Amino acid sequence: MLFILKKKHSVPLYLSEVAPYKWRGACNVLFQLSITVGILVANAVNYGFAQIKGGWGWRLSLGGAIVPAIIFIIGSLTLADTPNSLIQRGKLQEAKERLLKIRGVDNVDEEFNDLVEASEQSKKIKSPWLNLLKRKYRPQVFFAIVIPFFQQLTGMNVFMFYAPVLFKTMGFGDNASLLSALITGAVNTLATIVSILLVDKFGRRFWFLQGGIQMFVMQIVITGAIAFKFGFNGNPGELEKWYSILVVLAICIYIAGFAWSWGPLGWLVPSEIFPLEIRSAAQSVNVSVNMIFTFFIAQIFLQMLCALRFFLFVFFMIWVVLMTIVIYLYLPETKGIPIEEMAGIWKEHWYWKRFVPVADEEMADVKDTKKDEDKN
């Protein structure tokens, strides 16, 4: 658990700090891609070891987790510090050299000066945790809580944790349920690649809204299909081939909707909206909320499935509608904004501007940045 918390806290922040702002979305979504690839490999390994006669293949599946852990440890030893981290520790020359190497250009004076200024401002903060309570950080804290909260209430982790159980409950055989989980894992990976390619083209809001609508429609289909066959007694009888194909297809489209929207963006957006002075503390809040509700959903899912049957998907459907409305109303676009200038997006938002006082020169800088991005 400590390994998971460290990874989900550090990796999105690291990627956001080293990535060029024009490609920050794609670089950050690589984190989500690594997770989906891991899920796919785990499903493939489970399916393969399930074929071993004698029923002891699960031991190999469990023990095999040591392989990615070793790769992660060795890989982390080769990582260099980010320019932000070096500046915070007073290593300005080394930070500038690192920034030049990362950007691959001859002059990074403007970006470097912005990082130094942000670092100086952050050093004035005595307690980042108490600083989170300040009124001007209200929008960042709001999204640090609601994005991971909503991400878990899409119902996606239900399919990831319990896909074999869910498919078996719907009448698929043991091997068929594992194979179906393997298929959904492949869809999850491919859809994440779509997000990498297009998240910096269409922006964060587009994918949040599109993914929410897609998940909502597919949850209607899944609910209707399960209600049609299972009813309230939970006995579907013999499942026709067309029904099995419909259910798996609907679940795959639902997973694709999550995998190119709420999956990667749930980590990308929080990691890029936090100013340096509260970045670590706010990301800790983000990860904590995610882990708490991951645990909560995992613990109650089977009981909810038995009690609610197909109404379980109606439960998640309601949350998908609510989260889509919240994103539409309250989340400004963060595409193409340098991470150290991100505070400006709240100052021109119809709701959040009442919490964040705006200086005329800061507003002009934000608008100039957006104009430059639109031209490019």
TrEMBL record:
- SUPFAM superfamilies assigned to the protein according to its UniProt record, in alphabetical order: MFS general substrate transporter
Q: How does it sit in the membrane?
A: Multi-pass membrane protein
GO CC annotation:
membrane
The record's listing under Gene3D superfamilies reads:
MFS general substrate transporter like domains
UniProt xrefs under Pfam families: Sugar_tr (PF00083)
The Swiss-Prot or TrEMBL record describes its family as follows: Belongs to the major facilitator superfamily. Sugar transporter (TC 2.A.1.1) family.
Q: Subcellular localization, per the record?
A: Membrane
Q: Does the keyword Nucleotide-binding apply?
A: no
What keywords tag this UniProt record? Answer: Membrane, Sugar transport, Symport, Transmembrane, Transmembrane helix, Transport
* Lineage of producing organism: Eukaryota, Viridiplantae, Streptophyta, Embryophyta, Tracheophyta
Which intervals hold domain Major facilitator superfamily (MFS) profile?
A: 1-335
The GO molecular function terms of this record are: monosaccharide transmembrane transporter activity; symporter activity
Concerning PROSITE patterns, the annotation shows: MFS, SUGAR_TRANSPORT_1
Species whose genome carries this gene? Helianthus annuus (Common sunflower)
Protein's UniProt name: Putative major facilitator, sugar transporter-like, Major facilitator superfamily domain protein
TM spans (from-to): 29-50, 56-80, 141-165, 177-199, 206-230, 242-263, 284-304, 310-331
* CDD domains, sorted: MFS_STP
Q: Which domain of life is it from?
A: Eukaryota
